[in-house]
Amino acid sequence: MNKAKISLINKISSKTNEEVFLMFKLIGDFEFKTGQFVMITTNIDNKNIKRAYSIATTNKLLQDKKQIGFYVKKASENGVSNYFTQIIKEGDELEITGPYGHFIDNEEIKNYLLISVGSGVGPILGIYEEIINEKNNFNKLVNIFSEKTEKNINGIIQKTFNSNDEKVKNILYLSRDKVEGYRNGHIQDGLQEAIDFLGTKKIKVFICGKPEMVDDATNILLSKGIEKNNIISEKY
Ligand SMILES: Cc1cc2nc3c(=O)[nH]c(=O)nc-3n(C[C@H](O)[C@H](O)[C@H](O)COP(=O)(O)OP(=O)(O)OC[C@H]3O[C@@H](n4cnc5c(N)ncnc54)[C@H](O)[C@@H]3O)c2cc1C
Q1: CATH number of the structural domain spanning residue 82
Q2: Which atom number of ligand 1 is nearest to the Cα of residue 83?
Q3: What is the pLDDT, as a whole number, of residue 68?
Q4: Residue 201 CA to ligand 1 centre (angstroms)
Q5: What residues make up the domain containing 199?
Q6: Ligand 1 pocket, residue 78 CB under 6 Å
Q7: How many angstroms is it from 19 CA to the middle of ligand 1?
Q8: Does 80 sit in the ligand 1 pocket, CB within 6 Å?
Q9: Which residues form the FAD-binding FR-type domain (predicted)?
Q10: Are 73 and 119 in contact, with CB atoms under 8 Å apart?
Q11: How far apart are CA 173 and CA 149, in angstroms?
């Protein structure tokens, strides 16, 4: 386990101000496998509070530019997610420890299905960037993401999940909104279309989000013949 300090350099907020993408500068050295998480220690009202956050950028970005990003959704009125979405300012320094977690790609299978809802998009942002832009050693990829309304969509989502061609399909759902450019529905609605696009059941699946969504999507994928060993999930 390693420790390092990070200092905020940029914050992108959604229209609701409840979803933020935070980019930090690393002070010191740190390495991880894209998709893993760290424990972040904050100091709120003179108390040190630690929470787990998935790293939403790649290890290559960290090694090349000393930058590390996180995607945080407000989940409390005075906890750490409130600090990250409402209070943190440029230059604030925090401590990270880690890395932890199994949400990583062993690169055995070249067809990918990425699924996330809400703050579960954190590690998916890093994995997507690494597969498509850094390694570019894949056959086909489908990415399915869902949020409640258009106002909850953070700019980083539109910027990152923007390709649609013969190799890549992005399917973005809004569960409570009908807005051009998005589908109205839930990630479960897109699973068959994703398998059809990939054209095979030999797919590496990464699912991250609320436990009920992860369990439901996993059961649907198993019933469609996707192998259990190829479904990697993270619930929070
Ligand atoms: C492996 C892992 C990775 C994670 N990665 C991420 C990530 O990338 N991004 C992310 O956003 N989160 C992530 N989380 C969740 C994160 O660790 C925190 O649990 C979350 O940000 C809430 O922390 P908090 O201190 O704000 O809330 P806490 O004060 O700890 O509250 C915990 C929960 O209580 C409930 N709650 C508290 N106050 C209120 C209130 N006023 N009204 C209603 N409900 C309330 C909420 O459900 C809240 O989630 C991850 C968790 C794990 C285990």
Answers
A1: 2.40.30.10
A2: 26
A3: 98
A4: 34
A5: 111-235
A6: no
A7: 12
A8: yes
A9: 1-106
A10: yes
A11: 9
Q: How many CA atoms lie within 13 A of 188 on its CB side?
A: 12
- Compute mean pLDDT per 10 residues along the chain, 236 residues long, and list them: 95 98 97 98 95 98 98 97 98 98 95 98 98 95 98 97 96 96 96 98 98 98 97 97
C-alpha of residue 39 to centroid of ligand 1, in Å: 13
137 and 228 inside one domain: yes
